[in-house]
Design goal:
By secondary structure, the protein is of the alpha/beta class. The chain folds into two domains: 95 residues, Periplasmic binding protein-like II (D-Maltodextrin-Binding Protein, domain 2, 3-Layer(aba) Sandwich), CATH 3.40.190; 125 residues, D-Maltodextrin-Binding Protein, domain 2. The protein contains eight helices and ten strands. The strands form two sheets. Strands 2, 3, 4, 5, 6, 7, 9 and 10 form an eight-stranded mixed sheet that branches. Strands 1-8 form a two-stranded antiparallel ribbon. α2 crosses α3. The radius of gyration is 19 Å and the shape is globular. The model has no long low-confidence stretch (mean pLDDT 93).
Length: 242
């Protein structure tokens, strides 16, 4: 499985091959490779999670531009040292010039950078900071547990497409591999992924709650494009050591 740009290298080296699983008919064009090299198993989203006790309803940021307000300057936003997909997805949606202009302004907000998806939400729930850029399913799991957390989708919401491919060479049991992919893409497995707080990719298995993936503009971040340049830009822009 891959979500960080390894697809291109694997394809170039003839490591992965085509497999058009019969289950792929239940997947939209955004969630599968047209040539059969990969299919999405589940998705993830980047949203803004906030502490309901520390942020008044009228003050909740509704856009990325809102994060640039003086209110959120000075260690008010927790970001991840490895939020490369989020950065890359917005750059591709906005274009490099517009995207970099925004991120340079965001860098002046003096964010807190810390590694750990759930850990950042825990810090916000504990009141260490009011806001964090987080995974939507993780934020929702804290909501479900009764934590003082809520989240909003800042548009465009960057969507990570987690995918699976089949090995082209040296696969000891290629038939079994195809059956495994069929299972992961099946309604049974996709329903189980939903129960595990994942966003299923199959069209006839809705996420729980549906708002995890519906009702907002999206920027899909698939594994087919490299992120090496975006990783360097992210680290340079926010003065993070490589």
């Amino acid at each position: 499985m891959s979500s960080r740009g390894g697809f291109t290298v694997l394809k170039q080296r003839n490591i992965i091959g085509r497999y058009d699983s019969p289950e792929r008919k239940y997947y939209s064009a955004d969630l599968k490779d047209k040539d059969g090299f990969w299919s999405s198993t589940f998705q993830n989203t980047f949203v803004l999670a906030y502490n309901k006790r520390n942020v008044k309803p009228d003050d909740v940021p509704k856009t990325y531009e809102d994060l640039l307000k003086p209110t959120w300057k000075g260690r008010q936003i927790i970001n991840d040292t490895d939020n490369f997909e989020w950065f890359d997805g917005l750059l591709k949606f906005w274009g490099r010039d517009k995207g970099m202009a925004y991120f340079k302004r965001l860098a002046q907000q003096d964010q807190i950078f810390q590694r750990g998806a759930r850990g950042r939400i825990q810090l916000v729930a504990a009141g260490e900071a009011p806001l964090t850029i987080s995974y939507g399913p993780h934020a929702q799991s804290f909501v479900n547990q009764g934590a003082p957390i809520e989240w909003v989708p800042l548009e465009p919401v960057v969507v990570i497409v987690n995918s699976i491919s089949i090995a082209q060479q040296r696969a000891p049991h290629p038939a079994a591999a195809k059956l495994f992919i069929d299972f992961l893409l099946s309604k049974t497995a996709q329903t189980k992924l939903r129960e595990m707080s994942r966003i299923p990719s199959r069209s006839d298995v809705e996420s729980d709650p549906p708002r995890l993936i519906k009702g907002f503009k999206k920027s899909f971040r698939t594994s087919k494009t490299s992120m090496s340049e975006s990783i360097k830009l992210f680290q340079q822009t926010f003065s993070l050591a490589p």
